[in-house]
From TrEMBL:
It comes from the Bacteria. Residues 11-83, 233-256 are annotated as: Disordered. Residues 11-20 have a biased composition (Gly residues). Its cofactor is Mg(2+); Zn(2+). It is an enzyme of class 3 (hydrolase). SMART domains: alkPPc. Pfam families: Alk_phosphatase, GDPD. It comes from Arthrobacter zhaoxinii. Residues 65-75 have a biased composition (Basic and acidic residues). Residues 29-56 have a biased composition (Low complexity). This is Alkaline phosphatase.
């Protein structure tokens, strides 16, 4: 559709072995850490700018029954946090006061009430952007203000005035363990949804936006139009190129076949209403049109006829997100683009028609919120479009008005009105907001649109109590052969928060999951050489760094119980796995929310050396290839590794492992190589203060050193404390009493029992 949709069209941006303590640690998913993807700078395409549903509203899933306190029964599979607050933000793009009034008059009449007007809390929202050329906002800057709480230039998607990425409410939700979704009748990569799930310098970069949905923000539900940006040129996908209604529409993706990439990640892909209604997955991608889900603009007939109504998309999104029971609630943004599009072309009838469909969708969300009792529902416009005014018929007091439309019937009466349009662009008018649910009272009054972000995030954080972190050390080596895929599978089926594991680098540069820098005969036995006459055979007793992956995988590392672990089930014939294998296993179990705590292992005396750098870089590559950055933390006794991560992978949470005071060099002269060259005595011997000064996110100390003062100090500095390796029930209780945020253990079954006894929510148990 060849119509200018920016406020002040043409307004641009003008912006062109192993070191460490006496026992082995595990890692923690850690506190919220903002991901900072690099904005792209090359545009990838130019965006181009009545169904009635009678199905019932989505029904909130009943809260699970508790045995005691707030903890779940150990057999319920771990239903998540009952107190977690859902947030549903419903945006009528371009919907100012006049649009809401016209929708009301045409649908429910003078004394009727729209669903969106029935919400009890009322606010008035300023919409100006910070664009240097004009304060009249476009949808990109307005959406970024609501999504991320910052004013920015027109055209900016999830970046501030300095072109730096800013954390969005959707990203905060995902970090808090919530599911998230984006629903729109525009392209799913158009400005409003894009601002919640991506970071680019220009709203036109729609393929880059789609790629970031899959590779960075990863909302569980993505529904709307815009298939053209998910398929490369020449590949029309499910919807034919150059359709009769607009022959300019054709695939123009620049990031490869993103639909296939989404399916590989576990998204169920649908492209029509029957497919949407039949979808059963907990991750859903629906693309129902080449561009917007309706036609408008130059050289086409204006028509509002989405093949999948907004009501149906809204209902399905709520069902899927609310059904993800291992999540701490959900965040959902729903947009009706038709109000803005039809206001741009000064088509009052279709503005009203799309607005009525939007209000029906609000009805569904309201019914859900009322039944759920713990959902913040917000309805608002991002700006006003068209300068719409409602006037009596025959008003010729302004004969120079560009467009006067009418008559329009007032429902339930014999009265009529006409609409006067003053522009085809955006205006600087405030827009009305209505809300209900937890925190809605914070949205009364008059304020900037950035407050919407502040309130949504505040509500999500206050209503989300992170589950106690149960980390299975080396997969739970007290129960199954350590760091075997069988052990990790056992932990997934049992129900843990985090899979803790160790990583080494082979001679040929592969990242394997193994603890020791030397192959020990207590854990592995030779079977045969990797190749006939291999001079390095036998391999037991060799350094891991001197063996290739093929050589290592000839070893039988599941032939006897590990000494000291008599309860251990032996994974017969176990072969050493790669880190990528563990990620693959989690995908097979559909364990989307499981965390991975990866320890980078370095041989004694080689802290900070080239092997440490090579391993760290290789681990980062594997994590990114698996798209698990948000679910992976990196821990190390070699703090230089953590310092390197800040430079090469700032999106990853960093965990400082710490042994005893003697291990840390407390009271000893000079800097400790293991601590990245710092002297802990410069911090009064406090490992908390030393780790905090380096900017680390989590402290993971040996459990014997943990005190109430240590935990309090860490919490005051915003750090999480996850001690290792805790195997006795009495120690587990003691550490919980001290206020630790989680525990690393060889015996995850024991820790689950302790958590159940103390009323904790239990992590979900997965089945393949």
């Amino acid at each position: 559709m060849s119509i200018c949709v920016l406020a002040g069209c043409g307004v641009g941006t003008g912006l062109p072995g192993t070191i460490g303590g006496p026992s082995d640690p595990a890692d923690y998913p850690g506190p919220t850490k903002t991901s900072t993807p690099t904005p792209t700078t090359t545009p990838t395409g130019t965006p181009t700018p009545t169904s009635t549903s009678t199905s019932p509203a989505p029904t909130p899933t009943p809260s699970p029954t508790h045995d005691e306190g707030d903890g779940h029964d150990g057999d319920d599979g771990g239903q998540g946090n009952d107190d977690a607050v859902n947030v549903i933000l419903m945006v009528g793009d371009g919907m100012g006061t006049a649009q809401r009034d016209a929708i009301r008059l045409a649908s429910v009449g003078l004394t009727g009430e729209l669903a969106m007007d029935s919400l009890p809390e009322v606010g008035r929202v300023h919409t100006n952007s910070a664009d240097p050329g004009t304060f009249i906002t476009d949808s990109a800057a307005a959406a970024t203000a609501m999504a991320a709480g910052v004013k920015t230039y027109n055209g900016a998607i999830g970046v501030d005035l300095d072109q730096q990425p800013v954390t969005t409410a959707l990203e905060v939700a995902e970090r808090l363990g919530k599911s998230s979704g984006l629903v729109t009748t525009a392209q799913v990569t158009d400005a409003t949804p894009a601002a919640f799930g991506s970071h680019v310098l220009d709203r036109d970069e729609q393929s880059a936006i789609a790629a970031q949905y899959l590779r960075s923000s990863r909302p569980e539900v993505i529904l709307g139009g815009g298939e053209d940006y998910w398929y490369p040129a020449g590949d029309p996908g499910r919807l034919p190129d150059n359709p009769a209604e607009d022959e300019s529409e054709e695939s123009a993706g620049t990031e490869g076949n993103l639909v296939e990439e989404a399916q590989e990640q576990g998204y169920e892909y649908v492209w029509d209403l029957p497919g949407l209604q039949a979808a059963q997955g907990d991750m859903l991608l629906g693309l129902f049109a080449n561009e917007e889900m309706f036609q408008y603009g130059d050289d086409v007939d204006d028509v509002y006829n989405p093949t999948v109504p907004l009501t149906e998309m809204t209902r399905k999104a709520i069902d899927v997100l609310n059904g993800n029971q291992d999540d701490n609630g959900f965040f959902l943004m729903v947009e009706e683009e038709g109000i803005d599009a039809m206001s741009h072309v000064n088509n009052g009838a279709l503005t009203i028609e799309s607005g009525i469909e939007f209000d029906r969708s609000v009805t569904l969300a309201k019914e859900f919120a009322e039944q759920d009792g713990n959902t913040l529902l917000i309805t608002v416009g991002d700006h006003q479009t068209g300068g719409m005014t409602i006037e009596p018929l025959g008003d010729d007091s302004n004969p120079d008005s560009p467009v006067q439309e009418g008559p329009f019937d007032v429902a339930g009466s014999d009265q009529q009105f006409q609409i006067d349009w003053t522009t085809g662009g955006h205006t600087g008018d405030d827009v009305p907001l209505t809300a209900m649910g937890p925190g809605a009272e914070m949205l009364t009054g008059v304020y900037e649109n950035t407050r919407i972000f502040d309130v949504m995030v505040s509500v999500m954080r206050s209503g989300t109590d992170r589950d106690f972190d149960l980390q299975s050390h080396r997969g739970g080596r007290g129960e199954v052969t350590e760091e075997s895929l069988a052990a990790f599978a056992h932990s997934l089926e049992l129900g843990v928060t985090t899979l803790e594991l160790d990583a080494h680098l082979t001679e040929d540069g592969r990242v394997i999951v193994w603890h020791d820098d030397i192959i020990l005969d207590t854990k592995c036995a030779d079977t045969a050489p990797a190749v006939a006459g291999d001079p390095e055979y036998p391999y037991v007793g060799d350094r891991v760094a001197d063996l290739s992956l093929v050589q290592l995988q000839t070893l039988n590392c599941g032939y006897q119980p590990l000494p000291g672990y008599p309860e251990q089930d032996v994974a017969e014939g176990n072969r050493i796995a790669e880190l990528s294998d563990v990620y693959r296993l989690a995908r097979e179990y559909r364990a989307r929310k499981i965390q991975f705590n990866v320890e980078t292992k370095v041989e004694d005396g080689q802290a900070g050396g080239p092997r440490s750098v090579a391993l760290t870089e290789a681990v980062v590559d594997v994590v990114r290839d698996a798209n698990r950055e948000r679910r992976t933390t990196i821990q190390s006794f070699d703090w230089s590794t953590l310092n390197l991560l800040e430079r090469i992978a700032p999106e990853l949470t960093r965990v400082a492992l710490a042994g005893t005071a003697e291990d840390l060099g407390v009271g000893q002269p000079g800097a400790a190589p293991e601590l990245g060259g710092i002297d802990i005595d410069d911090f009064g011997g406090s490992v908390v203060r030393a780790a905090h000064a380096q900017g680390y996110d989590v402290l993971s100390p040996v459990f014997t050193t943990v005190t109430a003062e240590m935990v309090a100090d860490a919490h005051n500095l915003g750090m999480t404390v996850i001690p290792y390796t805790v195997n006795e029930v009495a120690d587990m209780h003691r550490l919980i009493d001290l206020g630790v945020d989680g525990i690393i253990t060889d015996y995850p079954t024991r820790l689950r029992a302790v958590m159940a006894e103390r009323g904790f929510d239990l992590p979900r148990a997965y089945q393949r």
